[in-house]
Amino acid sequence: MLKKLTILFFLAGITSIQVAAQGFLHADGKRIVNGKGENVLLRGMGLGGWMLQEGYMLRINREGQQYRIRERIEELMGAKQTEEFYNLWLANHTRKTDVDSMKAWGFNSIRLPMHFNLYTLPADKEPVAGKNTWLEKGFAITDSLLSWCKANRMYLILDLHAAPGGQGNDLNISDRDPSKPSLWESEANQQKMIALWRKLAERYVNEPWIGAYDIINEPNWGFEDLANDKNGIKEKKNVPLRKLMVDITKAIREVDKNHLVVIEGNGWGNNYNGILPAWDNNMALSFHKYWSYNDPGSVNHMLKMRDEYNIPVWLGETGENSNVWFTEAIRLFETNNIGWAWWPLKKLGFNNPMEIRSNLNYDAVVNYFNGRPGAGKPKESNAYSGLMELATYTRLENTTIHRDVLDAMFRQPFSADAKPFKANKIMPGAVVKAVDFDLGRNGVAYFDKDTADYHVSTGKNTPGNRGRVYRNDGVDIRKDSTLYEQYFVNGIEAGEWLQYTVNVIKKGKYNLRLRVCADNANGKLSVSSGKVTFAKEVAVPNTGNEKNFTFVEIKNVALKAGKQVIRIYADSGGFGFSEIRFTN
């Protein structure tokens, strides 16, 4: 027994040494490095929606600040049941299994968007003005998350997403109440923010798996011309922002000389006018990037600033787009040694690794909150049931995990190969769903003309998957109202195609029956495998609309045993397609 205990203590000691071996992340010129001086390329995920709900993540598009969502929920079902919902939400949304999964998928870091009100009271609710009441809840949640990160050798980056009073005029991202003084209009709010960062630094000073302190998320405030530049995009000096970040850094360094401090510019993190040069020798710049082209020019300003000031750059928040955009962006960032943190891990939406499912009672709450015509006020019991079910659905095992998103983030940036979305085993009676086309880049696994949203660069909205369900590639997918939990490809344009890697179990001649729909008689398709064309310009009949499906049949297709690649090509578009049936 003594020998066993000795071995266990020895192994525990090894584990402890391994956990601490890499040391603290820090700035080394233009690089972020670990304690060994090794370059660290952060591949991270932001836990948006956990401590801080933004309305869009819950499909609430009116009054989307968390405090208003909570107030409206209280109006439906009372304070006690509302507290139950939020406690269950916090307990379920992110757990050890989420962190374990992120590690297995390829992430090496997590960005925690913190709401200050889980750590301290708002300044106007302090029993003694100017004093800080510390709340254990936020610190306990952070401690648990840190323990899960340490177990997985992942860095945890603390991000103050909702600062006291709110740091900008984009109200939802900081849960700001515009009827009260903002962060920039209240000395008490600023002092509370400084004190909070000192408290966090004091608590985590000796934790090397805390990767960095991201001290303020996306400030967006017009200091010089608030009336005409409310989000600070054109700000030239940024004096109050720089002063506050300097004061926070000073407070951190009073108790913590170890950790990397990350700063963000005005205008949602990108306007650094007047902010640099750096005031500390262990700092990094964070930029945020959404809906712009992923060409070299789109990161030139980051690289220029990195070179000019000899300081590391980190893409602290990005995402909310299609798989094509994800692949392009990550390849661009990593080619330039820029680490990244995606946004978010999960929400009620399909373009993230995990999708939270809704339910009928919650849908009724959303319709009521959004003022949908005919949507009445839900019963208290129905609202409670719907919200508690939603909180239960945030658990990883109850979400839909989008493997296509993960493939686009980790394999496709540096691989031009296609791979099967599902194991399509072909024998008489087999069915291949149209939406289960191969995983891979546009032009490799499929070809679609509208693949991503670049509206910041183009001024036009091009969403990629217009149906916004099932997969996050450029292909348009909608739910089939005629079949339970079934989907189909629609909006097919001339020249587009879909590829399916299949494994033919039994060689022979097959009839391929394609289930199609169309509201015109213009559609034509071809079917091929490699250099062999099985059928060319097969007419797709007019079925009246997308709810009516029929079959077109391609007879006597000879398939060899083993792996083959089948392509469905649109000679002319205007039709939908749901499946291929393989019959004798």
From TrEMBL:
Residue stretches in coiled coil:
none
The record places domain CBM6 at 448-583
The biological processes this protein is annotated with in GO are: cellulose catabolic process
Q: Which UniProt keywords apply?
A: Carbohydrate metabolism, Cellulose degradation, Glycosidase, Hydrolase, Polysaccharide degradation, Signal
Record InterPro entries? CBM6, Cellulose-bd_IV, Galactose-bd-like_sf, GH, Glyco_hydro_5, Glycosyl_hydrolase_5
Q: Which GO terms describe its cellular component?
A: cell surface; extracellular region
Entry's SMART domains? CBD_IV (SM00606)
Q: Does the keyword Nuclease apply?
A: no
The protein's matches in Gene3D superfamilies, at most eight in alphabetical order, are given as: Galactose-binding domain-like, Glycosidases
For molecular function, the Gene Ontology terms on record are: beta-glucosidase activity; carbohydrate binding
Q: Signal peptide: which range, if any?
A: 1-20
This protein's superkingdom?
Bacteria
Family membership:
Belongs to the glycosyl hydrolase 5 (cellulase A) family.
PANTHER family membership: ENDOGLUCANASE, PUTATIVE (AFU_ORTHOLOGUE AFUA_5G01830)-RELATED, GLUCAN ENDO-1,6-BETA-GLUCOSIDASE B
What name does UniProt use for this protein? Cellulase family glycosylhydrolase
